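Why should sequence recovery work at all? Because a backbone constrains its sequence more than one might expect. Tight turns favour small or flexible residues, buried strands favour hydrophobic ones, and helices have their own preferences. The token representation captures these environments compactly. In the example below, the structure is given first.
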């Protein structure tokens, strides 16, 4: 691209973005008449990316600066990692968009819209993808490859064909009904992971999410079943009850942490056991439960007026409904990001998590931050059981899902505690769980999915830490080089500076009238 002559003018960013969108979309539409749709889309997005790379130096304020202020343009790592990563992500985003839209739209329209999204991502990633973020994507990709290799090895040595098994899982996991279940399970996993991530940001390990959400779901279901209220008000009361119970139960661990120095790991584990005992005690026909069926008891069914309506999944080709709580999960994710990056509380939270002593020296009330972090983590944990409660089962019974809190820990690690990363990690985890449901019918152990989930979490944690440390050293080297170059330039400018008027030097080292021949600085 650098050999093609460029005009000696600047190009506004909106114009460059529009040109890439037009090129990628039109080329895809034109090639779609004679090629497979995905081949045409790949060619179109690659062409758009090439146009963005060619016009990159013409865009004012474009790429070249990392998040830490270092210059990244034209560096070896930028050329060999960042640019290829941006290209791969652009093509992948276009293909995934087109595949998803193809479920409800005709193929030419889905391909054109996929090319539009891929071309837009090409412009955005080329100008905004930093070296550290590219390293993070590379770490996740490497972990995925290792997990697939380990799973394939286990299948191979078990005399099970790996490729056929993976193909079967993908085919079953991408069916319309499976996609709806993946979204619903992913919604629940996402809330659990965000609850864990809030604690992780403070270097707190909230293992008690599982007990917090189960106790909150039980009491919220009891309130919804016994207390009949008008629509909307009933949903609000149920949600507030769950949030209050979850926050109060986690607040116990936070209080013990700041007043008695009790490790939150120990206290939340113990609180999980206590929550299990309280749930078993209350869930009996002598207290909060009624007989649901011959072998099952639970809280009284919540009236239909208190349910949260589902979303029709006809656009996916399924008769099932998506949980309406998916919008609440989106709101929680947005609120989590805003809190971390746009509020003083989020800044103090991150600062305390990085170094409590430094934060305390800066005037941050560390004990208050620890308690509030556990409180907010528990409040989000209280929401985990509500998608299932108000969207599907409508009562809390013996068969209510358990163990979601521990899954949230794995997903938070996999998503690196980032609200967007947790989205993909939740959907990926739900996909593996759903896709493995077909394996027993083929004589393949369903635990294959568990092996993949555990391997990818372990490898992501290890590989990301290795890559992160290497990336930090690389950043320090780049900053050192820039500081050295700046110091050299300053020294050269000082040496070549002309003499100051009156016989003094450029650094003000001449004599000052009335100072008895002393240097100006010494006289002053």
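From this structural description, the recovered sequence reads:
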């Amino acid at each position: 691209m650098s050999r093609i002559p460029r005009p000696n003018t600047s190009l506004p960013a909106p114009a460059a973005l529009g040109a890439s969108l037009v090129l990628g979309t039109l080329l895809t539409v034109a090639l779609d008449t004679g090629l497979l749709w995905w081949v045409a889309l790949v060619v179109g997005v690659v062409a758009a990316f090439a146009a963005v790379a060619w016009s990159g130096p013409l865009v004012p304020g474009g790429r070249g600066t990392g998040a830490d202020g270092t210059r990244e343009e034209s560096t070896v790592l930028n050329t060999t990692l960042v640019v290829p990563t941006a290209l791969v992500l652009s093509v992948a985003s276009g293909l995934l968009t087109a595949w998803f839209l193809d479920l409800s739209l005709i193929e030419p329209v889905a391909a054109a819209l996929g090319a539009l999204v891929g071309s837009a991502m090409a412009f955005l990633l080329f100008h905004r993808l930093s070296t550290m973020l590219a390293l993070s994507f590379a770490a996740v990709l490497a972990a995925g490859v290792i997990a697939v290799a380990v799973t394939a090895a286990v299948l191979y040595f078990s005399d099970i064909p790996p490729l056929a098994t993976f193909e079967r899982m993908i085919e079953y996991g991408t069916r319309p009904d499976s996609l709806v279940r993946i979204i619903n399970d992913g919604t629940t996993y996402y809330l659990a992971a965000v609850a864990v991530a809030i604690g992780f940001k403070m270097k707190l390990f909230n293992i008690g999410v599982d007990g917090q959400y189960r106790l909150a779901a039980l009491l919220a279901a009891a309130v919804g079943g016994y207390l009949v209220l008008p629509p909307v008000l009933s949903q609000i009361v149920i949600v507030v009850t769950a949030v209050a119970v979850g926050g109060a139960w986690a607040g116990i661990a936070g209080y013990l942490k700041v007043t008695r120095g009790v490790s939150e790991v120990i206290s939340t584990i113990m609180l999980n056991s206590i929550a299990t005992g309280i749930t078993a005690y209350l869930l009996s026909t002598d207290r909060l439960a009624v007989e649901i069926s011959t072998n099952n008891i639970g809280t009284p069914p919540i009236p239909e007026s208190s349910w949260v309506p589902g979303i029709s999944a006809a656009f996916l080709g399924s008769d099932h409904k998506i949980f309406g709580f998916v919008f609440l999960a989106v709101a929680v994710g947005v609120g989590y990001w805003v809190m971390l990056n746009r509020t003083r509380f989020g800044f103090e939270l991150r600062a305390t998590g990085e170094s409590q002593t430094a934060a305390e020296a800066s005037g941050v009330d560390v004990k208050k931050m620890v308690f509030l972090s556990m409180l907010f983590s528990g409040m989000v944990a209280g929401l985990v059981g509500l998608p299932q409660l108000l969207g599907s089962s409508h009562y809390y019974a013996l068969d209510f899902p358990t163990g979601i809190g521990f899954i949230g820990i794995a997903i938070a690690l996999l998503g690196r505690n980032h609200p967007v990363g947790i989205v993909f990690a939740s959907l990926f985890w739900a996909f593996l769980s759903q896709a493995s449901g077909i394996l027993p019918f083929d004589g393949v152990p369903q635990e294959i999915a568990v092996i993949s989930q555990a391997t990818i979490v372990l490898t992501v944690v290890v590989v990301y830490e290795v890559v992160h440390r290497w990336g930090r050293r690389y950043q320090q080297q780049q900053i050192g080089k820039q500081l050295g170059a700046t110091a050299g330039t300053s020294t050269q400018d000082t040496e070549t500076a002309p003499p100051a008027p009156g016989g003094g030097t450029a650094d003000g080292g001449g004599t000052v009238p009335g100072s008895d021949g002393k240097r100006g600085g010494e006289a002053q």
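A few observations help interpret the result. Residues 190-402 form one domain.
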